[in-house]
Amino acid sequence: MKRKIKILLLPLIIVFVYLSIFFGVFIFKKGNLTQQEKNIDNAKNTNISEGLSKNGANYGYAQNSAIQKNSKYSSLFSPKVGNENSKVNVVIFYDFDCIYSWEEYKILYNVIKKNYNNGYFEFRNFPLESVHPNSRALANASMCANEQKKFLEMFNEIFSNFEDRENGSVDINTAIKEYAKNIELDTMQFNKCMSDLKYDKIINKDIVDAINFGVEGTPTFFINGQKYPGVITQEAWDGVFKIVK
Fold first, then answer.
1. 33 vs 38: CA distance, rounded Å
2. CA dihedral defined by 154, 160, 164, 168, rounded to 10 degrees?
């Protein structure tokens, strides 16, 4: 009888040992990934603006269409503004709670308004939640606003209130509802979009693509197929758009 019990227990012991090893490895890897995320935190590249301002015409111009040059970095579902037939095509990976993305916003928003007919700008999300816990909620808010054709308005609203959020005195859910009200969205549609996490899978796809494209921080730009990580100055943007003047 005892021998039969031992025989029956043997497979259970093997399964238990296997599961213990599996979950041990999984937890170890997960812990390392989280630490890696923390170590990545978004940082700007100080050489990018100098290079673009000196060589803007060369970097900005594409013999083939700019859309083709940047197509591998594009997403069907991303917010896009500007002239899709322009010679300057920009894909941006950004994080609404990243200070460097905020620094770039103060430049980029004016660049877009100034070059709306001469450039095509696509916005993709790369929220680093381990460092910026509100970033995914803000990304969802921007996508839900885009559903109502008001992405750029929400982009401006979120970044305009960056410092208030940094002070830590703002409840993010209350703030997002206020942003939607300020830009005159259909609040019922917007609130349902947010509660359903309608665009969360698209944000996940943006994150996976960003990692595959070698994005290590925000903002990161792909301008006509060329990668530029970091804050780009107004002077550098002017160099890029000289080719269409």
1. 9
2. 50
Question: What is the SS3 string spanning 81-125?
Answer: EECCCCCEEEEEEECCCCHHHHHHHHHHHHHHHHCCCCEEEEEEE
- Which pairing describes strands 226-229 and 119-125: parallel, antiparallel, or unpaired? unpaired
The packing angle between helices 200-212 and 135-147, to 10°, is 110
Residue ranges of domains in the chain: 1-40, 44-244
Token representation of residue 135: 């970033």
pLDDT of amino acid 52? 58
> What pLDDT, in 10s, does the model give residues 82-99?
999 999 999 999 999 999
**Interatomic CA distance for residues 205 and 209, integer angstroms:** 6
CB 91 within 8 A of CB 98: no
Give the number of other Cβ atoms within 10 Å of residue 242's Cβ.
12
In DSSP terms, 244 is beta-bridged to none
pLDDT digit string, tens, across residues 16-55: 444 443 334 333 333 333 433 443 444 444 445 555 545 4
Beta-bridge partner residues of 221: 92, 228
Arithmetic mean of pLDDT, 128-134: 93
Distance CA 144, CA 157 (A): 14
Name, in order, each residue with C-beta under 8 angstroms of 115's C-beta and a sequence gap of 6 or more. 82, 88, 237, 241, 244
Range 44-244 classified under CATH 3.20.20.140? no
Tell whether omega for the bond before 127 is within 30 degrees of 0, i.e. cis. Answer: no
Q: Which two tokens stand for residue 24?
A: 């041990």
pLDDT at residue 203 greater than cutoff 50: yes
